[in-house]
Amino acid sequence: MYYHSDQLVREITVKAQAFRIQVLKMIYHAQSGHLGGAFSAAEILAALYFHHLQVDPANPDWPDRDRLLFSKGHACAMLYTALAYRGFFPVEELLTFRQFNSRLQGHPDRIKTPGVEMCAGPLGHGIAVGVGMALAQKMKGIKPSSGSAPSARASAGRVYIVLGDGEINAGVIWEGALAAAKYRLGNLTAILDYNGIQQTGATADVLPTEPIADKWEAFGWHVQEIHGHNVGEILNALDRADEVHARPSMIIARTTKGKGVSFMEYDHRWHGMIPNQEQYEKALAELEEGLKKWQN
Amino acid sequence: MAELVLMRKAYGEALVKLGQANPDVVVLSADVSNSDFSFMFQEAFPDRFFNVGIAEQSLVDVAAGLAYSGKIPFANTFAFLFATRALEMIRTHLCYGEANVKLMATYAGISDSFDGPTHHAITDIAILRSLPNMTVVVPGDTVAVAKLLPQVAEWKGPVYFRINRNEVPVLFDDTYQPVIGKAVRLRSGKDVTILCCGLMVSRSLEAAQKLAEQGIQAGVTEIHTIKPLDEQAILQAAQETGALVTAEEHSILGGLGGAVAEVVCDRCPVPLKRVGLADRFAETGPYATLLDHYGMAVEDIVKAAQKAVEQKERLAQKERLAQKERLAQKEKLAQKNEL
Fold this sequence. Notes:
Chain A is of the alpha/beta class.
């Protein structure tokens, strides 16, 4: 078992909950966006950006950085929030989300937004694009470590991909999964935000993907299943995945769509619905209450 | 008759040379490397060659990932698969995301003739050129392949490079110096200009010869880059000869003909006849037979040029009459005023 202090776990959990509040404000302000799938990915992104990933906000193009591909692009309000709080751009800019003349497009744009590694929105691209990046990193090989500057790193960066569960309906996901196994990409880790709900209903009804762990194992991946809102489990799983050699890693993170707001949880309508003022205030109050719980 | 050489073999050789010159060049294939001759690169640089299987969407996405990490990926599969099956990947990552991927689109046009319409690419130029940030290059022979491929590698941004499956006539020698984005004037003529690309360059030159025998002086200009289009050269041809023909191994909708029409309609309207496949699918058969049957015979170019010239003359005649009438009116008015 890996050790992460209670304090670290608590700090990241608090961040994730604060991110939900930020995302709610952004989407309510824009009157446009996707709440449910953003809320389910909060802890995953907070754990990645505030502990696990080696990135340098002052130098977003650092060649040996870890790369995070946010493949479920529609939920990007959460990605932008994590990036802003990590220092890639000012937090104040978050309220320009989905506005005209903003760097924060409706779906991720790698040219406009610092820290965004891949254009996403059309679902299914993360794994295959990640395979290309992981191959490129592998071709660099191990470099001699020198000094302590962020640019001095013993090995080339790893590739992380955050997927939605509805997203894996797409055939190119499985094309990429086969390629990742073929090329024994131990430097690639995918995290499946498995909230069980997609745009029009339960994933089990729309296009059943269970048994999901067996599928990825059969495709040649190392598979872990975790509670996707438990930061300790997320951190452990990421560490373990880094130690898998010669196989890509899949972390199936069981999550709740709309997590943190009682009337949004498990309800597919909150995939893309915008709260009215009353709903907004109620959601904000619930999220703030949740935040207090973790802060104390 | 010019010597015939297999275009894809010339491509394989050029690719190996590129691999030797630039260590960042990597090559990907969707399991057709013995069709497109990228296997030659695989033999020379096995560590820089990736066969992702019969998975064209993954092919383009994996190439994008490599490009985002600083490599110069040359992705190989059949033209129709890039243009139709993997199109969203091309749009999202290569065009919008600016991934520096080179699409090596083989078996283009109807050159995979015996495999039939499922394997023909007759709309690929129209589809690819409609995408922002895309560059579309159609080499005319094997010399053009060898001369243009290093430029494709150097070019900033995605390129769609259209390669013929078959033996094609060698048109050019070492004096041929094509530059991406610049048209090449191959023959001068005052009556009409034939704008052409790919295999239709050789047929256009033949047509120009036949037209000369009939007393029509046809110029031939090779437009090997469909995008960015050399608008200056097209406008110059329109102004100098007042009549245009386009000739391409592609649907007459949206390809070279469409691109030229857009330019001349906007800025220098002149008669324009488009030679290519009428808006329909071809069928299985010998390559030359299909080209001739489906509207891409030398004779089709000759007829198109004749019609363009006739139309130009009719318009000129009409203009002369109109001018005469205007003069007569003016004189009448002047006489009236004198009275």
